[in-house]
Amino acid sequence: MSAGEPVAERGPDPTREDYPHRRAFPTRWNDEDAFGHLNNTVYYSAMDTTITGWLLDGADLGLLAGGFRPVVVQSSCTYRRSAHYPEVLEVGLRSTRVGRSSMTYDLGLFRQRDGALVARGTWVHVAVDAATGEPVPVPEPLRARLAGISAPPA
User: Fold this and answer.
1) What is the CA radius of gyration of the chain?
2) 48-86: per-residue pLDDT in tens?
3) With b meaning 16 or more CB within 10 Å and e meaning fewer, what string describes 92-124?
4) Residue 71's closest CA among 22, 134, 21?
5) 25, 36, 79, 82: which sits with the fewest CB atoms below 10 Å from its CB?
6) How many C-beta atoms surround the C-beta of residue 51 within 10 A?
7) Band of the pLDDT at 20, cuts 50, 70, 90?
8) Secondary structure string (H, E, C) spanning the chain
9) What pTM value is reported for the model?
10) How does residue 151 score in pLDDT terms, banded at 50, 70 and 90?
């Protein structure tokens, strides 16, 4: 397996319980596309909303006050089955790697009503200085929060 292979391709499908942080994501009427299922952009919005919400819940991180900003440098999504409006998705989030300036997340998108995995994604953030845009070390308070949602070793 290459280092660049998406986390979503590793091992058996996870369950909701495999994710320490979960967030409901209600779908909307206009999320369906001409092919009768949720458009692929909805899955990315669900992942982004879940990660950003989790980050902002950590008020001690100071994301809105300046300092550093997490910038997406890589993302992927593997679709397992279709989802439809008016389903509510439950998005699971866990940390799989924390480097010097980067953090990698694994996300599972499940139908809330039956727990079926509909998609799985990976997301990589790099911490950058808010003023210069240059990479900076992941702040210690964020490292501690990431440890709280880390995936068990494979």
Assistant:
1) 16
2) 999 999 998 876 666 767 788 999 999 999 999 999 999
3) bbbbbeeeebbbbbbbbbbbbeeeebbbbbbbb
4) 134
5) 36
6) 23
7) very high
8) CCCCCCHHHCCCCCCHHHCCEEEEEECCHHHECCCCCECHHHHHHHHHHHHHHHHHHCHHHCCCCCCEEEEEEEEEEEECCCCCCCCEEEEEEEEEEECCCEEEEEEEEEECCCCCEEEEEEEEEEEEECCCCCECCCCHHHHHHHHCCECCCC
9) 0.88
10) confident
* Cβ atoms of 47 and 75 closer than 8 Å: yes
Provide the residue count of the chain: 154
Contact at 8 Å (CB) between 150 and 96?
Answer: yes
Residue 98 φ/ψ region, left for φ over 0, alpha for ψ in the -120 to 50 degree band, beta for the rest? beta
The rounded distance, in Å, linking the Cα atoms of 84 and 82 is: 7
In this predicted model, what pLDDT tens digit does every residue of 81-129 receive, in sequence order?
999 999 999 999 999 999 999 999 999 999 999 999 999 999 999 999 9
Which tokens belong to 111?
């139908």
